[in-house]
Write a structure and sequence with these properties.
Length: about 230
């Protein structure tokens, strides 16, 4: 039997894929009833077209604790984390870094912290400024969520450069850069995961702009250029 997907159908594929995974065939049928396919084939076709994103597997689901302002989207970051582990060939049980709220320099929104040569007692974590949390509370939650994804990529690539070890006394500065194609590809993935739930084209554009800005600035923290 032949079938055809119209262009208008394609934007529904990621969210329908999530429906198949999370709620079974019936919800999948409801979400895709506008596509003329045999019912039994719907979930298979969607799975093939939706790309590599999958919900976190129960066997190695990470324990992720987000600040309250971001906590309603914990499942999205868990899904993104599992995808990142696969893309970087990381150990499947690699623990998620702590995410904390901390006062930082006024121009820094968010930063990955880890033991360094001069600060060996530093703990691995992603620190978010109170001002950034306030942004999330005031309507920029998805943007802030994507910024956490940006720091997760730094976290994994730095660990990859050190053979996935958390036991070193210090870690050398990152070899990867914001302009690297791999880095930009991995960061762009967070926009796809968030889009699958919220269908926000604005968010996708914002992540692309964040990638371009980070490449242009050449830094390794998310900073407000207006505060420099």
């Amino acid at each position: 039997m032949y079938f055809q997907l119209s262009q208008s159908s394609l934007p529904f594929i990621p969210v329908a894929f999530a429906a198949c995974q999370e709620s079974g065939r019936e919800l999948c049928r409801q979400r895709l009833k506008h596509i003329r396919l045999p019912t039994l084939c719907l979930c298979l076709i969607v799975s093939l077209l939706a790309g590599p994103f999958k919900p976190a597997d129960a066997g190695f689901r990470t324990q992720l604790q987000l600040p309250e302002a971001l906590s309603q989207d914990t499942d999205l970051l868990e899904r993104y984390w599992v995808w990142l582990l696969r893309q970087t060939n990381a150990p499947s049980d690699l623990p998620f870094p702590d995410i904390t709220i901390e006062e930082m320099q006024s121009n820094i929104r968010m930063q990955l912290l880890r033991p360094g040569f001069q600060n060996r007692s530093e703990q691995w974590r992603i620190a978010i400024s109170p001002q950034t949390i306030k942004r999330a509370e005031q309507g920029e939650r998805l943007i802030v969520l994507s910024e956490v994804g940006h720091e997760l990529v730094h976290h994994l690539l730095l660990l990859q450069e050190h053979q996935w070890s958390y036991s070193r006394s210090f870690y050398n500065p990152p070899k990867h850069r914001h302009c690297d194609q791999e880095f930009q590809y991995l960061v762009a993935g967070v926009a796809q995961v968030i889009w699958s739930a919220y269908h926000s084209s604005d968010l996708v554009r914002a992540v692309e702009q964040m990638n371009q800005k980070a490449c242009w600035e050449g830094g390794h923290v998310l900073a407000d250029s207006t505060s420099k």
